[in-house]
TrEMBL record:
Protein name per Swiss-Prot or TrEMBL: Large ribosomal subunit protein bL9
Domain of life: Bacteria
Gene name of this polypeptide: rplI
PROSITE patterns: RIBOSOMAL_L9
RNA-binding in keyword set: yes
Species this protein is from: Metarhizobium album
Amino acid sequence: MDVILLERIAKLGQMGETVKVRDGFARNYLLPQGKALRANDANKKRFETERATLEARNLERKSEAQKVADVLGGKSFVVVRAAGETGQLYGSVAARDIIDALAAAGFNIGRNQVDLNNPIKTIGLHDVTLHLHSEVEITIQLNVARSADEAERQLKGETLTSADAIYGVDEDALRPEDFFDPDADGDSDEE
């Protein structure tokens, strides 16, 4: 299906371009969301008459998104979750949790603006990309920890999932011989 784009869409095209897309993508996403029009003569004329208002509206949305990006860019947000000693979370941190952390800090971001392909399942510092506008994207840092104190230690650069941090043992000093006896299988060299 040929459609006329009403805004810039990543990996597809710029505003005003006529592009060919799959029918399902057009019917289920582009057309209902108001991101495109079917490419027929009537809609082409309609787009040309409304082009100035569409460009002005797009520019206004972009400037608002850029203001939010300037404030949000490079910030770090803490999410506290229960985790095992190895740093594996008992649950996971999904886009919904990121939105809640941002809302607690006073930022209103939509769930579809969070680019998180897989949920976060370990403690540590994670970079998350936010698409505030089709032309404005930023990266924030998500600090997933078991407690606020642990989050501060992670920011200082401490590793909290290694044997040293958990057990107070130097990982480099650990050797396999320290944990098992090669003669423990019952075979003895003595007869």
